[in-house]
Design goal:
Order of helices and strands: EEHHHHEEHH
Protein name: Metalloregulator ArsR/SmtB family transcription factor
Structural class: alpha+beta
CATH architecture of the largest domain: Orthogonal Bundle
Number of domains: 2
CATH superfamily of the largest domain: Winged helix-like DNA-binding domain superfamily/Winged helix DNA-binding domain
Strand content: 5-15%
Pfam family, one: HTH_5
Shape: globular
CATH class of the largest domain: Mainly Alpha
Strand order of the largest sheet: 1-2
Largest sheet: 2 strands, antiparallel
Keywords: DNA-binding, Transcription, Transcription regulation
Radius of gyration: 18 Å
Distance between the termini: 31 Å
Number of helices: 6
């Protein structure tokens, strides 16, 4: 669990743990840290958002370019970009009347996605077949 948080050192995995240390003298609730991790995973939990992140790993793109590449509506792409921006994963800069979107933490994000791919390879089809979170659960 320590790998997920650069400054977080979990004391225990008990639900009643109240604090750990984050940086010099700043107490951090373990529950809050785990909740933040869950929020991050939820932000990555949509195939369209993952496709956007993967495409942005190639470089900056305008919304119109993302919609053409992904075959999604402009409003859908814009909504997903807003979510990813609010999570701190992407940023934009103006270019004329458009905006160019890019990843904010490219190396860390690509490392996390590579780790997810390794974990998926290790578990085989278990995640896809999971009755709670697998592909059939989304129907």
């Amino acid at each position: 669990m320590a790998e997920l948080y650069r400054y977080h050192r979990p004391v225990t995995m008990r639900a009643d743990a109240v604090s750990t240390s984050k940086g010099p003298g700043l107490p951090v609730s373990e529950t809050a840290a785990l909740s933040a991790a869950a929020c991050m995973f939820r932000s990555l939990g949509d195939p369209a958002r993952l496709a956007i992140l993967r495409h942005l790993s190639l470089g900056e793109h305008k919304v119109v370019e993302l919609t053409a590449h992904l075959g999604l509506a402009q409003s859908t792409v814009s909504a997903h970009l807003a979510c990813l921006r609010d999570c701190g994963l992407v940023t934009s800069r103006p270019q004329g009347r458009a905006s160019l979107w890019s990843l904010t933490h490219t190396t860390a994000l690509l490392e996390a996605l590579a780790a997810a791919e390794r974990l998926l390879a290790a578990t085989g089809d278990a995640v896809a077949l999971c009755p709670t979170f697998g592909e059939a659960a989304n129907l």
